[in-house]
Amino acid sequence: MAVNAAPSGEAPAGRLAGRWVPWLVIGLWVALAAAMVPLSGKLSSVTTDRAVDTLPASAESTKVAVLEDSLTGGEDNTFVFVYHRAGGMTDADRATVERHYNTLAKRYPPKVAAVAGGEDEGPPTRLSTDGKAMMFTLDVSATYGGPETIVGPLRDAAKDRPAGLDLDVTGPAAVDGDMDAVFEGIDLQVFLTTVVVVTLLLILTYRSPVLWFIPLVAVGVAALTAMATVYLLVKGFGIVVNDQNSALLTILVFGVGTDYALLLIARYRETLRHHENVRVAMVHALRGAAPAIVASAATVVAGLLCLLVADLNSTSGLGPIGAAGILCALVAMLTLFPAVLVVLGRRIFWPAIPRFSTAVEEKPGVWGRLGAAISRRRWVATLGSLGVLGVLAIGLAGNTGALREQDQFLAAPESVTGFTVLRQHFPELGGQPMTIFTRPAYQERVLNVVKGTPGVAQAFPGETKGGWVDISVFPKDAPDTVAEYDTIKRVRTAVHAVSGAEAIVGGPSAENLDTEVTTSRDEKLVIPLVLAVVLIVLGLLLRAIVAPLVLMATVVVSFAAAFGGSVFVFDTILGFKGVDYSVPLLAFLFLVALGVDYNIFLTSRAREETVRLGSREGMLKALSATGGVITSAGLVLAATFAVLATLPLVMLIEVGFLVAFGVLLDALLVRSVLVPALTLLIGPRIWWPSRLSRPAEPPTGRHSLADDEELALQR
């Protein structure tokens, strides 16, 4: 079909096409960058992974952590030193353990090292019943620093020991220290890896020596601006940013920013063939692409802000952080990016420079042929797509149990292997210690009920300070197991029954239990809210009811398939021991908010084309026009999230793989086959109750762009 590019199409551009506008926009961005980019480097200085900043706001363990901070200047760091020799501990080994304990107890005097056996057990070191291991517990005040700064010196201080005597420094603080080591430098690593991945994909997409560089620069500026904005939010409003959310911020900005760039470039390339003036062409490209891009950003921002209702601090904190990143990407890609493209002119597309022509011949291409095939076999395409998604969803029957903290590492560090050794030689002390705060007058009563609680191995009182006394409790069962969690629940029930004691139970495993319970509750609240908000955004964009419902249904089915397929990979291929508690909610948010983007890009174009071509031809034209760019956008977004799968932490690998797989599933199957097939099956009723739902097809033929705009206004 030939499309007439009449001069009348130049008129609507108006003042937006003035020569000075692009330069003004670039100048404003240069001034903004000068102010914001220096602040972006300060984001890492305000990131935190303190328990009180990441735990559920209302959880009992959070109250314990807050109380520890207020009474002692920070939660004590508990380390467990486990010495072991296969042939049995020698006299020299025992002397070494005693010497190490005495040295470390003097080095960290504010809180005396305590034996796990209790206040009346005698010496602070303990020999296992099999005679092959010794251990002691060291509580180090937070005034000496966090676990990441203490665990290294502690291990170094215990290096001087007889040959054959092995040592594992474990305990809750050692696990936290090893976890912090994984996140050390993660922001820079994620940023650089993402830049490399996006660069390679843009080069492959455009096969141009220059064009790939422009969206990369614009997205990079957006990312740095987003980091600076988040830094200002932290300083001004006290928003909490942890290392995980900081990494996700970079991924989000680069992923969605590049997607917006691909969509705009594709539309700009089209309009350059219809308009000789590049500024006028860009105005028309923005008019065509901006509504879908804005709707896409609004969907993601609205979805992210739904996280504010979550009780888990780390989850609710991601809401404003991610929203700020998306908004920075949106503004940059709709202002700075088009301004730079206009200034550089058509030559930026070299060697495939789009030429202006009064009659552009449109070729069907691979996506046009796919649309024709789907149109001929609509039921086959629909049922086949649903069949593939259904098979993948069967994977949900696999291991979806919660991942223990000790199983988070891709390669088990010393702190994790140390827990295994501790369980082998001290089976009665296999769990992580609980901390109970109670009023001093009720110390004995609380201590007695705790000792009588099934599953408790040891319990002894600690310091009295600020009107509170702390009691350390050692459960019998392994950390983060159902049995240990049951013991924590029984202990809480027992101490809460002591009237007037005001006893509260916390500690590392209690924190993990509360986090898991809270996340499950947050899912029941956030997921329906996200679905409702995204549905409203789709309804406003498409001005219909049926189409948004159909699109949401396909996204939900796609999420189930992506989750099921990913669980199969995690369980059967990678051998992970469960799914991290935060993965389902984060993956759902990203896949619904980001996955629906591609449906927005497709259906918004389909609605535009339906105005002049009718519902069937409109969808086929939309698929033909957007197929290539949406597929490229899906590949870029999937690749950016796949960057997380290169990090040595199971949780990030699971999020990265699941979202990347889900995005590809959305872009290559749901948007390319299922949505067009359903649209063709439903027909004009897909746009109900708008006027487009009327079955009458408008006449086809030669139309000027001005005629098309007039038709759109009438509809």
What is the straight-line distance between the termini? 23 Å
CATH architecture of one domain: Up-down Bundle
Task: Indicate the radius of gyration in whole angstroms.
Answer: 30 Å
Tally of helical segments: 24
CATH homologous superfamily of one domain?
Answer: Multidrug efflux transporter AcrB transmembrane domain
Biggest β-sheet strands, sense, barrel: 4 strands, antiparallel
Shape by Cα distribution = elongated
What class would the helix/strand composition place it in?
A: alpha+beta
Percent range for β-strand residues:
5-15%
Low-confidence stretches: 1-14, 110-122, 697-715
β-strand number: 10
Describe it for me?
There is one protein chain. This protein has helices at 20-40, 43-46, 51-54, 60-72, 91-107, 147-157, 172-183, 186-206, 213-237, 243-272, 278-305, 313-334, 336-344, 365-376, 378-393, 414-425, 443-451, 482-496, 508-542, 546-573, 583-613, 615-642, 650-682, 705-714; strands spanning 2-4, 77-84, 126-127, 133-140, 166-170, 359-361, 434-438, 456-465, 468-475, 504-506. It has 715 residues and is α+β, with helices and mostly antiparallel strands. Among the domains are: 1-54 and 185-361, Up-down Bundle (Multidrug efflux transporter AcrB transmembrane fold), CATH 1.20.1640; 434-506, Alpha-Beta Plaits. The strands form 3 sheets. Strands 3-4-2-5 form a 4-stranded antiparallel β-sheet. Strands 8-9-7-10 form a 4-stranded antiparallel β-sheet, with helices on both faces. The protein has a two-stranded antiparallel sheet with strand order 1-6. Strand 8 and strand 9 (468-475) form a beta hairpin.
